[in-house]
């Protein structure tokens, strides 16, 4: 049984919906965690060993859980948040919890790449910690952060495909329901091609934006 074009387009839309919403909320969480992991570490502008010692293992714990296991493990929490554990909207909850800590590590690495001399110069000029973050740290790391978000987006696309294994919808669900279970090789090929194209488009856009940031 071959799938219709309408069903393929619906699956693409569901995937884009999950990726975009998850990326927005995951980026907010990841940015906050990433910044805190940097500025509260030893020797940084807002050193606080207690906050760092709490956040660091929490991020590590969530990052160590495979997405498919996380998706199943938090079903009660997902049901509490959105009222159901099946469908594209339900899949967003574990996607956010999966990608948020991942983004935080990417943001952390991007911010740590900033030359310490820039921070020291800002401190010498009397800049406050918040001025250092928004006028020196972020502008210097912005191009790297763009690539980090690009990497996270590609990871999200792969995670949405796994979400299809448990009724999350999207291209993953299409491949499993119509490709694997109904032995439609063409459906699987079409799904793979679309996923590859999505990844390539995201990577090209990320590279373009990163180059624009570097030139500035």
Structure commentary:
Helix content is 82%, strand content 0%. With 216 residues, it is mainly α. The protein has one domain: MetI-like fold (Orthogonal Bundle), CATH 1.10.3720. The termini are far apart. The model has no long low-confidence stretch (mean pLDDT 87).
C-alpha termini separation: 53 Å
- CATH classification, class level: Mainly Alpha
Could you give a short account of the major beta sheet? none
Briefly note the CATH topology name.
Answer: MetI-like fold
CATH superfamily: MetI-like
Counting DSSP H or I runs of 4 or more residues, the number of helices is 9
Give helix and strand order, one letter per element, not per position. HHHHHHHHH
Strand residue percentage: under 5%
Just name the CATH architecture: Orthogonal Bundle
Number of domains: 1
If you average the pLDDT, what whole number results? 87
Structural class: mainly alpha
Radius of gyration: 20 Å
The helical percent reads over 70%
Described by the principal axes of the CA atoms, the overall outline is elongated
Provide the low-confidence segments as ranges.
none
**Number of beta-strand segments:** 0
